[in-house]
Write a structure and sequence with these properties.
The complex is a heterodimer of chains A (597) and B (179). Chain A is α+β, with helices and mostly antiparallel strands. Chain A has 19 helices and 21 strands. Chain A has helices spanning 11-15, 40-67, 69-97, 135-139, 167-178, 182-186, 203-217, 250-268, 272-284, 288-315, 356-360, 379-386, 394-405, 411-414, 422-449, 454-479, 517-522, 545-555, 587-592; strands at residues 34-35, 99-102, 106-111, 117-122, 126-133, 142-149, 159-166, 233-236, 319-323, 327-332, 337-343, 347-355, 363-370, 387-393, 481-485, 488-493, 497-504, 508-516, 524-531, 537-544, 564-566. In chain A, a hairpin with a 3-residue loop joins strand 16 and strand 17. The longest helix of chain A has 29 residues, at 69-97. Chain B is an alpha+beta fold and 179 residues long. Chain B contains 5 helices and 8 strands; from the N terminus they run αββααββββαββα. In chain B, strands 2-3-4-5 form a 4-stranded antiparallel sheet. In chain B, strands 6-7-8 form a 3-stranded antiparallel sheet. Mean pLDDT of chain B is 80; it is low at 1-15. The chains are: A alpha+beta (597), B alpha+beta (179).
Chain lengths: 597, 179
C-alpha cells in the first residue's frame, strides 16, 4: 500500500505549471481542474476488505454447518472479492469523475457518475474549510475537506465535500480559500496588515501554506508542536482537563451502556444465559445493599473510563489559534483528527457553558456565537463547529473568551450581573413542584384505587423529588442575571446547565418581549435579543418589566425606546423604585440602582 | 464602561424617570380580519360537528356519547369561536415608524417585537384563499435572525402593498449589512 505514496497525481502540478502571475499555480491539468487523491481507491478497498472480514467470518461459520467448510470458504472468499472489486470499481469511477478547481472569484466542483453536477461557489461566501482525518485516511496522509458556505442552494446543501485529498493540499486549499483581501476584513477589526495584498497567491499565503505543509507532512499534525509561546495560539490541551470528563451526564449513560454491551457480546457468543446467571449467583451471595453498591460502582467505573476515553479521543492535542487571515482555528482529536475554522468577522460573542458537574469543579466550556452555517441540519455538526474550548478551569475559560473576543477581560467576568426580582424565584419553585407533583399524584391515585403499595412509592418520590426540585429551583433563580459591560450584553440562566452568553450589542438585530398572564401579574417579562448568530435569540428570563425594558433600551438604543411609555401609578411588586430626578436613564443607571427585594 | 458613545449620549429616548412599559402599537388590523377569523373558526367548528354528528346519526350504540360530545363542542366552541377573534382584534397591533417595525400579538402570552429598518432582510406578503375572499393580506417582515420574523396578519391588500413597498424602499435606503 505504501507504494502508492510517492506517485501522487499531484506531481502534475509542478510539471505543467500554468503561467500564473502569482507564482503559485492553484491547479493542475487543463484549466486548473484538480482531482481527488488517487489513493482513495486503495482506502476504499481496505475498508471493504475490513467489512468483508467482519461480516464474512460469522457468515462463513454459519454456512460451514450446512454446505461444508470447503464450499463455505469458497462462497465467502468469492463474495468478498466481488464486493471489493465492485466497490473499488465504483470508487475509481467516482475518483475519475470528481474534479475541483480554484478560480480567483469562484470555487468549482464537478462530480457525479450518472448525473453530472457542477457546483460553483462564490469565494466571498465561503465561510469555513474544515478538515477531518479518520484513522484509516491518516495512514495515507489523507483528509476529508468540507467547505461551508453562506450560500443556500436549491437542495438545501450548504457544504461541499472533497473526499479525500492529501493533508498538504487540504492545508493549502484552506489557506487559499479562507484568505481574503485585507479591505474585506478591516471591518472585523482584525490585526491583519492592510493594503498591498493582491486577492490571492500572495507571498504570505505561500509562506503560511508552506509552513503548514512542513508541519503536517512530518507526521506531527501540528498539534504536538511545542508552540504555546506562539502569540497566535490561544489555548492548548492540558491533560489535567481530563478530570472534568467524568462529571458529565455521559458517565452514567456510558456506565449503563457498558452493561448492555456485555450482554450483547454474550448474546453473540451464545453465552447470555450463562453470563447472567453467573452474575446473579455472585450477587446473591452478597447482602442486598452491598450487591446494589457493587453494581452501581461497577457501572460508574465503566462510565468514568468511557467518558474519559471519549473526552481524550475528542479533545486530545486540542489547539485553538488565531491565524493572521482573521480566522480562529480549532484542531483536535486523538484517532480522528479534526480542524475546524471560524472567521472572526462572523463572531458575535461567546457563550460559557457550565453543566452542574463541571460547575462544582469550577470548570466551564466556551462556545462561539457566530453567524452563518446556523441552519445546518445536523445538530451535532453545529456543536462541533462552535465549541472553542473543552471543559477547562473557569479562569482559563474566561481567559480564552477574552482572547477570542480581543478584549482585555472577558465580558463574562467583568460584568456585574444583576439579580432578577424574587417573583422569578417563586415561579421556578412552582414549576419544579408541579413537575414533581405529576408522578407523585399519579402514584397516589394508583395507591388509593388499585395498588396500595404505590402510596409508599409516592411518599418516596415526594421525599426525594421535592428537595431536589426546590434546590434546582433556587439554583435556577440564583443563576438568573443580566448586565452590560463594554460592547456586550451578558445574560445568564439555567440550573443543570448554566449558560452565560456575552453577545456583542452590535450583533443584536431586534428585541422580542414576551409576557404571560402570570408574568404580567407579577410584573415580570422575558426579553429576547434576536441575532443572526448562534441560537438566533438569547433571552433574559423573568426580569422586572421596568428594569428589563430599560436594560433592553440601554443595551441597544432606539429599538424599544420609542415605544416606551410611563406607567401611571406604581409598578407591581418586583419592580424597582428608581431614584427620582436622575437624568435620562443611562446604562450606568440601570446597572447601579439596587434591586428591590 | 464609558466610551461606547452609544449609551450616555442617547440613553433612553423617553425621559420619563418613572417606571415604563411598552405602549401599544398605533394601528389595528383591518376590521375584516375579524370576519376572516370568524369564518376560519366557523369552518373548524363545522368540520368538528360533521365529524361527530355523521357517525352519531349513523351508528347506533355509540350515538348518545357522540351527541354528548357534539353538545360539548357546540356549547364551548361557539362562544370561543365568537369571542377569540374579537379579542385578537383587540390585541393584535402594528406600527411602522421611520426607523422600525413594531408589532404586538398574543392573548395569554403577549409578545412585542421590534425590528429596526437597517436589519430588515425581506418583506413577504401572503394571501391564502380565505384571505383573498376578504381582500386581506398577511405581511411578514424577516430579519437575519431565524427568531426575529414579525407577522402582521389581516391587512387590507392595498394597504399591505403600500406597506411592503415602503418597507422595501426604506430598507434599501438604510445602510447596514443586516447581520
Amino acid at each position: 500500500m505504501s507504494g502508492a505514496g510517492p506517485d501522487r497525481p499531484h506531481d502534475a502540478r509542478d510539471g505543467d505549471a500554468a503561467p500564473a502571475p502569482s507564482g503559485q499555480d492553484d491547479g493542475s491539468g487543463r484549466d486548473g481542474w484538480r482531482r481527488l487523491d488517487r489513493r482513495t481507491i486503495v482506502v476504499t478497498a481496505l475498508r471493504l476488505a475490513g467489512l468483508a472480514v467482519v461480516a464474512g467470518i460469522p457468515a462463513g461459520a454459519g454456512l460451514a454447518g450446512t454446505v461444508g467448510s470447503g464450499w463455505a470458504v469458497a462462497a465467502v472468499v468469492g463474495g468478498a472479492a466481488l464486493l471489493i472489486a465492485a466497490g473499488t470499481g465504483a470508487e475509481y469511477v467516482r475518483w475519475r469523475r470528481t474534479r475541483y478547481r480554484v478560480l480567483p472569484e469562484r470555487f468549482e466542483l464537478r462530480r457525479g457518475i450518472l448525473v453530472r453536477t457542477r457546483r460553483s461557489l462564490n469565494r466571498d461566501r465561503i465561510r469555513s474549510v474544515d478538515i477531518t482525518a479518520p484513522p484509516l485516511l491518516r495512514l495515507f496522509s489523507l483528509t476529508q475537506v468540507r467547505i461551508g458556505t453562506a450560500e443556500r442552494t436549491g437542495s438545501g446543501e450548504s457544504a461541499l465535500a472533497l473526499l479525500p485529498i492529501t493533508r498538504a493540499d487540504a492545508e493549502e486549499l484552506r489557506t487559499t480559500l479562507l484568505h481574503r483581501p485585507a479591505g474585506d476584513r478591516a471591518a472585523a477589526g482584525t490585526g491583519a496588515p492592510a493594503g498591498t495584498e493582491p486577492p490571492q497567491g500572495t507571498p504570505r499565503t505561500d509562506g503560511t501554506a508552506g509552513a503548514d505543509r512542513v508541519d503536517s507532512t512530518d507526521g506531527t499534525d501540528g498539534g504536538a508542536v511545542p508552540g504555546a509561546a506562539d502569540p497566535g495560539v490561544l489555548a492548548t490541551f492540558r491533560p489535567s482537563w481530563v478530570r472534568f470528563a467524568p462529571v458529565s451526564v455521559l458517565t452514567p449513560a456510558l456506565g449503563a451502556a457498558a452493561f448492555g454491551a456485555v450482554l450483547q457480546v454474550a448474546e453473540w457468543l451464545g453465552l447470555q444465559d450463562g453470563v447472567v446467571s453467573w452474575a446473579l449467583d455472585r450477587l446473591r451471595a452478597l447482602p442486598l445493599p452491598t450487591a446494589v453498591l457493587f453494581v452501581v460502582l461497577t457501572g460508574l467505573a465503566a462510565g468514568v473510563v468511557g467518558s474519559i476515553a471519549v473526552f481524550v479521543e475528542w479533545w486530545w492535542r486540542f489547539r485553538l489559534e488565531r491565524e493572521p487571515t482573521g480566522t480562529l482555528r480549532v484542531r483536535r482529536g486523538l484517532l480522528t483528527t479534526r480542524s475546524v475554522s471560524l472567521e472572526e468577522r462572523r463572531l458575535r460573542g461567546v457563550e460559557l457553558l457550565e453543566p452542574l458537574g463541571n460547575r462544582m469543579l469550577g470548570a466551564a466550556r466556551v462556545d462561539a456565537v457566530a453567524t452563518g452555517l446556523s441552519e445546518q441540519p445536523a445538530k451535532n455538526e453545529r456543536t462541533e463547529h462552535k465549541t472553542l474550548l473543552p471543559p477547562a478551569p473557569r479562569w482559563d475559560a474566561d481567559r480564552v473568551a477574552a482572547a477570542v473576543l480581543r478584549e482585555p477581560v472577558s465580558p463574562t467576568e467583568s460584568v456585574g450581573l444583576r439579580r432578577h426580582p424574587r417573583a422569578a424565584r417563586g415561579r421556578r419553585i412552582r414549576w419544579a413542584l408541579s413537575v414533581v407533583a405529576v408522578p407523585v399524584s399519579a402514584a397516589v391515585v394508583l395507591g388509593l384505587t388499585v395498588w396500595t403499595p404505590a402510596l409508599v412509592v409516592a411518599a418516596l418520590l415526594a421525599a426525594v423529588g421535592v428537595p431536589v426540585a426546590v434546590a434546582l429551583a433556587f439554583e435556577a433563580y440564583a443563576n438568573l442575571g443580566h448586565g452590560l459591560t463594554g460592547g456586550y450584553l451578558v445574560a445568564r440562566n439555567g440550573s443543570v446547565l448554566r449558560r452565560t452568553v456575552a453577545l456583542q450589542r452590535r450583533g443584536v438585530i431586534g428585541w422580542t418581549a414576551r409576557q404571560s398572564f402570570f408574568q404580567r401579574r407579577r410584573g415580570l417579562i422575558t426579553l429576547t435579543a434576536t441575532t443572526a448568530a448562534g441560537s438566533q435569540g438569547y433571552s433574559v428570563y423573568d426580569v422586572g418589566t421596568n428594569e428589563g425594558l430599560r436594560f433592553a433600551e440601554a443595551a441597544v438604543p432606539d429599538l424599544f425606546g420609542p415605544f416606551l411609555e410611563p406607567v401611571g401609578g406604581t409598578e407591581p411588586p418586583g419592580g424597582t423604585p428608581r431614584t427620582a430626578g436622575a437624568p435620562p436613564a443611562t446604562r450606568k443607571d440601570v446597572e447601579r440602582h439596587t434591586d428591590g427585594d | 464602561m464609558t466610551g461606547n458613545g452609544t449609551d450616555d449620549a442617547s440613553g433612553i429616548t423617553d425621559p420619563a424617570p418613572g417606571p415604563v412599559r411598552l405602549r401599544a402599537p398605533r394601528h389595528r388590523l383591518d376590521r375584516r380580519a375579524r370576519r376572516l377569523w370568524w369564518t376560519r373558526s366557523g369552518l373548524v367548528l363545522i368540520a368538528a360537528v360533521v365529524a361527530l354528528g355523521v357517525p352519531a346519526v349513523l351508528s347506533g350504540p355509540a350515538g348518545p356519547w357522540l351527541l354528548l360530545g357534539l353538545g360539548v363542542v357546540a356549547v364551548c366552541g361557539v362562544p370561543v369561536a365568537v369571542a377569540l377573534p374579537l379579542w385578537w382584534y383587540h390585541v393584535h397591533r402594528w406600527e411602522i415608524t421611520d426607523d422600525a417595525v413594531y408589532t404586538r400579538t398574543g392573548l395569554l402570552w403577549q409578545e412585542w417585537r421590534v425590528a429596526p429598518m437597517s436589519r430588515i432582510q425581506t418583506v413577504d406578503t401572503e394571501r391564502g384563499p380565505l384571505e383573498r375572499v376578504f381582500g386581506l393580506v398577511t405581511v411578514t417582515v424577516t430579519t437575519a435572525s431565524a427568531k426575529g420574523p414579525l407577522t402582521i396578519p389581516g391587512l387590507d391588500h392595498r394597504l399591505a402593498a403600500d406597506v411592503a413597498e415602503r418597507l422595501t424602499r426604506t430598507t434599501q435606503a438604510t445602510p447596514g449589512d443586516a447581520t
